[in-house]
Queue: 2 jobs
Job 1
Amino acid sequence: MKTLLIGEYREGKLLESTYELLGFAGELGAETAMLLVGSDNQLPAYGGTLYLADAATCGEYNPDLHKKLILEVVQKESPDYIVFLHSSYGWDLAPRVAAALKIAKISEVIAITDGGFEVGCCNAKMRRSVKPVTAKAVVTIQAGAFTAKQPGGTPDVHKLAATGGGALEFIGYEPAEKKDVDLGKAEIIVSAGRGVGKKDNIPLIQALATALGGELGASRPVVDAEWVNHSHQVGTTGQTVSPKLYIACGISGAIQHLAGMKKSDFIVAINKDKDAPIGEIADVLVVADVMQFVPALTAKVAK
Amino acid sequence: MKLLVCIKQVPDLESRFKPNAEGVWYNETDLAFRMNEYDEYAVEQAILLREKLGEGAELTVLSIGPDRVVEAIKKSLAMGCDNAAHIQDPAASAKDPWQIASVIATYAKDKNFDIIFTGMQSQDRGSAQVGVTVAELLGFGCTTTIVGFDYDNGTITAKRELEGGIKGVVKLKTPALVTCQMGLNVPRYPTLPNIMKAKKKEITVIPVAELQAEEPLATTTSFHPPAKKGGGIVLEGDVGDMVEKVIAILKDKTAVLR
């Protein structure tokens, strides 16, 4: 079995998540080749075949051209699986490659099963086992689902020369908003999710954070609704945290949120839904209404 | 200008899900359905553009599924879409993303849409590929997970959300398809007068057989809850008792409470 792994590169740097692709291929027990639109001086520590295109000429986000490069390598390597990360780069590019080849595309794989793949569904509350019908398939893997593997060595580089534009013109990056709190350094984080109900309830979550000597965190919907400033957002599009104690208040546990906090030492989740996916990673799940439980806990802690 | 927005009706995600008789998707009994959240941002953005363009612009909302999806279609019409296409398919949930994308592309191919809006993914299936695949099948330019959108004279300027809060700004010419992320805008609530007006708007019903020719490329073999990892303590019951228990556990297991 053979895999073609599509590495990631952004703002002039090879992304560490590229090594998760090698972790996936290792679990699959497959041969590997890698394709990267990157740079000569940012080569992955990987001794296999690397098809390298120059991001300076091909662009970091130019999906039409990147698709063309991938299809060219697929011709040469004839891989069984073309593997991407399920990231802003991968989920954008993978369906284009699958459509061009008219082969199955299996999204956000979290585990390998007998002859197929396990994927999350229903907001991560349930799972599906999926099998491609086609001989080859495109797969995107969930960030963090497969342990990164850095085999070391220097790749055997094959340069790709294709150039050309596409339908898109990439203008540039906009930096993340400045953070007025560095949650990465906090020992205790108390986070508010949609389950707190309304903006007026946020001070009650903040009160628990204050009573514990911690910081206020938040899930994405709460930030989008402007109940809490973006600098408090925990998750893939916010901050990644690993405090000694993380208390999730009314957070169901979307994958993007879990990815940002699952390395916390101890996790307490308060949720009225016993089946909420946050329960999967919580050390303690309190099945209760957040607005009843949190003020009661604050009162006790403050004593 | 012709605009299309594609929506899906999904169950309330706070529901408890049980496998259906075939064991490959959820049983719909007792589930309440509503518009996929990502699609609400797509509908709102399409309506904002429709309003900006004024006379001469036309916005169609499309949904594939059984008759229940008409509720989500009606909501879109009440928000401000001009007309609708209901692609009637009682078996839509058994189709793979390739088949769904093919149905939409077949519907759209001779209608000269300038811009197609979709959500970035559905909340139930979460494959995040139908929109991009439709664009590929139609030969449209496409960008994904947008949190900013502007249109001027045949060019879209979109802001994509990347990891870590960074954004990527791209320009693309129409015809184009964009997939919408949460936070793109603030979806409006339909007002009562607009709900009344929407009753007069046309919903074209098209049986899926007229548009469907593709076989699936992937198949679901099982739908099931995640394996319980165990170890976690679940507390239920009286709030006061649970507070005492949580304090005791924190004192015992963490160094943060003494």
Job 2
Amino acid sequence: MREILAHTPGKIYLLVLLLSIVIMAVAVGMGALDTPADGVPVLVFGWMTMPLVMGVVFVVVWLIAYLIYFLKFWPYR
Amino acid sequence: MFDYIALGVFSLIIIGMAAYGYRISAKTAEDFMLGGRTIGLVVMFFFVLFAISSSWTFYGFPGVLYLHGPGYVFFIWGSVAGFAGLYMFLGPRLWALAKINRFLSPVEALAERYESKALRIILSATILAFIVPYVGIQPLGVGRGFEALTGMPVWVGATYTAVLLIILVILGGMRIVAWVNIFLGVVYITALLGSLFWVIAVVFPNGGVVEAAQIILASEPAKLSTPGPLGVYTPVLVIGTFIVGLLAFSWPHVIIGAMTARDKTLFKWFPILVFIFGGLFFYIIPFVWGSLIAPAALPGITDVAEADRVVQTVIQTFLPRWFAVFVLMGVIAAAVSTAAVQLMTSSIIVARDVIQGVLKPDADDAEITLWARISVIAIVVLSLGVTVAVTLGIGEEAMALYLSDVSVPGFAQWAPALVGGLLWKRGTRQGALAATSVGVIYLALGLLITGPGGSRPLLFNLHPVIPTLPINALVYIVVSYLTEKPSEEIIEVFFNEVDDYLLSEKS
């Protein structure tokens, strides 16, 4: 953590991770997971419920951010 | 007869691996407790993944999804971030610190960092108090699986698991527990994924998961979104569930895994495996089981205990009996893989931190290894008390909630001292002692003092971790600033040397 915070790419990386959590929390708070007014839950590809979709997007964001960061800037090499 | 032959062969494979591990081990405390710090990336990943994937992923997790819809999955998203975060931010420093100074337990590392024997006692007692009943839940899960499949009483399956655990951990130590976890994990994934595909093919032959989703959409659409049919998973609870999952970085049996690593490159690749294999594959299996397949195949269950067993019930209803035996083997694998690592962690804390750290400082390698093995038997016997209590009808409901309501908040109480000890030079002994004590006492009082209808007024009726952890962290920071900063020697050993080691080629 100390090494990651010691350089700008590390700070940006941490900011991306934190922002993804904040954005997800705000989306949940605004009812993004709730059943729409028509009472029919949103299903992506006919079976993926919104909590699953949001979680998969969250994990993919963390994965891409990590891949970009560690491939170029991993601090312990 | 087939049931017993299959389970016998399964047990013999585990015992054989443990015996082989005993034969090749170096017979030192470091080898028994941390696998000689030689665990590589692939073994480490599956070792940790299956250490955290207990029988809860077969019973509790799908059971909650079945009753309340998909909102509870946010515990998994939080956990994935927490585990990855541990190996990104804390793992490398803890590993380097333990390797340079030959620390065998994370409690030992913190006690030395804060120069406090009192903290060593408090942390050891706290972790053992929260982890031992958790060990007991695993044989209980197997006992229930046995009961559902064979009709035998719960204690038979629980005792079988306990004996298997004692042999595995006493003979094999950490290295073989890690290796056996790979075997157990393969059995578990094959059982869980194989049964999922087979049930889908049998019950939903025309449209698979889409057909299952359409059946639920027509009959009980509230089960396909938050807050769920009973209105439980409100946005506040979903966010709270995510935060509780995030605290997975403080689970002692996961943290100790980081100390067994062969070299620092493991920490570079580990998070990728967590995201891809953990977040995008492994945990999706029980999610699909609990939120789609089980509610569509067997609708109408409202009882919590029945919902917990719903995956097993579906398998026994729609698949041949021989496969149900294989699935029970998968449940045993999930339970043993978790309980074995928790047992190793507990025995290390007893031997290294309580016996050698406090009661018998001159104990040598052979003595603390012997104490670790003795404590394994004692902890298993103690944890079987959980099975006895539940069999007698005591604490049935409490056990179901133990993981999320007691263990996770309990483990979280050492998080500020752990994170501060590794990352913050200004963290002091007094800060760590005050914060951990305040957090544990507040949590205990909050859980024990209940109001009407089981409410928890001291915790403001929130999840136990939500009020206790911020108080703990605040006390740690304030008291640390109010007391004298750590000595130059501590800064040198716990920060400067670790920085140099991590940045050097030799690590």
